[in-house]
Amino acid sequence: MPVEFLGIAATGDGSETTARTTAAFDRDYTLRLARAHEDHGWDRVLFAYGAGSPEPAAAAAFLASKLDKLQILLAHRPNVSYPTFAAKTFATLDQISGGRLTVHFITGGNDHEQQREGDFLGKDERYARTREYIGIVKKAWTSREPFDHEGEHYRFNDFVSDVFPVQQPRPGVSFGGSSDAAYAAGGAEADVYCLWGEPLARTAEQIERVKEAARAAGRTDVPRIQVAFRPIVAPTEELAWEKAHRTVDAIRARRAGGEPLRRGRPLGADAPENTGSQRLIEIAEAGERYDRALWTPTAAATGGAGNSNALVGTPETVAQALLDYYDLGVDILSARGYDLLDDAIDFGRYVIPLVREEVAKRDAEKAARAEEAERDRQQLIAVQA
Cα(350)–Cα(348) distance, rounded to whole angstroms? Predict the structure, then answer.
């Protein structure tokens, strides 16, 4: 099936390598970055969530009213609003966007970050709450009759929404994580399961864990798989590796100076609590380079902060590396450079077309093989008759 590309919908121009020069929410920059994605072959952009950061649903509504094609992946933490209110917010945004919304539910991997907005539940309790929350949101999106709910974390009576999504039966649900609790919750509820970029063998293991969790939940389908990377691309391999080392030097310099990766959180300030970041650090400690182009010093320099493993090389090298993941069953490729605007343009110009062309060839070959197999089957039936 066709591959999809996910970029970032930042509302300001800062990254791990450079301090922000815009306001936290800059209308012009937000729109300029999104248009760069839409004009250069990207399918959707992520509005991320952070305590104290601009409210992503409002920013997404602004963008949806300005652009006609770019799809939206909206990150949302269940602790910040009641699920019935969230369901209405999402349905309204799906209406504003004309049916371009997917919601990414975040359980939260850092206790201190969660507590900034009043969430003092432990990790396992948060996963249980997220699973209950998603179930309520799905029902609110689809139920035309009032319903009651009494669960471990939420209780209400006689709710029915008056606003429903454009997408039927509902928008997509996205989820991520690398712990047992994450696999169980996402395997049960997610349409898209999100992973951070790891070596191919470890990614294959995680994909199988997601499939097992989906089967254990009684599903007959499985979530689509998304994997995220930080591409570092240049016209030659030598220039790409020079750029990669400059990037890590800049991250380390900011970390040494105590500059914030996010507002109020220094780079690598704490040992990560979430399993995904712990895995990134473990992989980085075991080696710097994996497979065709995966490079781990960017993850090590940030202390395993989120999507942080790089793919380094020419457009052709990075495209082939992404195709290696496609061959594993990954069909949504998330990429975000360190110069958000220029890297989005360059990746869209030079990498995305290569990947799409090769995926189209592979799909055509697969279809031809299937057609040939069906002809052989029909011939066998005719001979036996």
Answer: 6
Residues 202-244 have pLDDT tens digits of 999 999 999 999 999 999 999 999 999 999 999 999 999 999 9
Neighbour tally for 41: CB within 10 Å: 16
- Rounded mean pLDDT, 51-71: 97
The number of angstroms, rounded, from the C-alpha of 360 to the middle of its chain's C-alpha atoms is 23
Strand partners, 149: 156
Q: For helices 340-350 and 352-384, what crossing angle results, to 10°?
A: 40
- For residues 23-39, average pLDDT: 98
CA distance 164 to 282: 44
Instruction: For residue 266, name the pLDDT band (cuts at 50, 70, 90).
Output: very low
Tens digits of residue pLDDT in 284-301:
999 999 999 999 999 999
3-state class (DSSP) for residue 168: coil
Q: Which residue has the tokens 């709710």?
A: 159
Question: How many angstroms separate the CA atoms of 105 and 95, rounded?
Answer: 19
**How many residues in the chain?**
385
Helix, coil or strand: residue 94? helix
Q: How many CA atoms lie within 13 A of 141 on its CB side?
A: 29
The token pair at 13 is 């121009």
Report whether 328 contacts 207 (CB < 8 A): yes
Is 192:174 a contact under the CB 8 Å cutoff? yes
pLDDT tens sequence across 301-318: 999 998 999 999 999 999
Place of tokens 């380079």: 289
**pLDDT value of residue 268:** 45
Strands 260-262 and 294-295 come out as unpaired
Cβ–Cβ under 8 Å, residues 219 and 188: yes
Q: What are phi and psi of 261, to 5 degrees?
A: -75, -45
Quickly list DSSP for 98-155.
TS-EEEEE---S-HHHHHTTT----HHHHHHHHHHHHHHHHHHHH--S-EEEE-SS-E
- Which residues are registered as beta bridge partners of 81? none
Cα 33 to Cα 37: distance, rounded to the nearest angstrom:
7
